[in-house]
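Our consortium's second objective concerns turning raw sequence data into structural hypotheses that experimental partners can test. To show how far this objective has progressed, the report includes one record in full. It was chosen at random from the queue rather than selected for favorable results. The single chain below, 254 residues long, was entered without modification.
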Amino acid sequence: MSRFKPFINAIIGFSILVAVWQTIIIFGDYDTVLFPTPLMVGEGIVSLIQDGTLFVHFQVSILRFLAGYLSAVVAAIILGLIFGRLPLLWGVLDPVAQVLRPVSPIAWSPFIVLWFGIGDIPAIVIIFIAAFFPVLLSTVSAVRKVDKNYLKIAQNLEIKKFELLWKIIFPAAFPYIANGLHIAVGTAWIFLVAGEMVGAQSGLGYLIVDARNSMRLDFVMAGILFIGISGLLLDKAVGLFEAWINRQWGRTNG
């Protein structure tokens, strides 16, 4: 029964949300054209699924996301492992990273469009920027927290530097790096949708803008719900990957 508890809690939570949503419409006397009911949004979701529109836009968005997110994760982890072992170099680069990190990736969009043109590349670059810094900073911090005993043992065994990073430091630091992976998923997904709402001609962000221009706010709300659910599933996927890595390395959460 306990394994079904998260699903039961989710059903209860969404039921409460739908009830509050419907109550606001009833007692607020809102025009359903401007504030669609849950039933209207449900019918909109079914319509978007039946004609294939939702899956077409989702496929475009998820491919952009995976290209930007995975490339950012690989680059950030590699650089983070290196910078974490070179404190003097990181001392010079850390202020630069701290200045660039708070800047919204959307702020770079004028330059990104000028440099990379239009199409999928600008959205992928925006995702890369959004995911890169959380993973980089968490990796550097994780490397600096690695138990010194591991390093002493590796030194006594005369393990080479590359093997030290890959076989000792990375596994020891991974639980902390995983926090950065979760944060990066959320920020990258948010800015993907934001980027698609600005200048793309496809994707979930574009779906919302196109529906708004057509005054189909039931489709707008359907798109918003699907974006939220997709973000949740992506975060869960990272959690499953983290659990799989821990099992491979003989590490348990208990």
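The partners drew two points from this record. The mean pLDDT is 85. Residues 59-248 form a domain with the MetI-like fold fold (CATH 1.10.3720.10). Both points have been shared with the crystallography group to help prioritize constructs.
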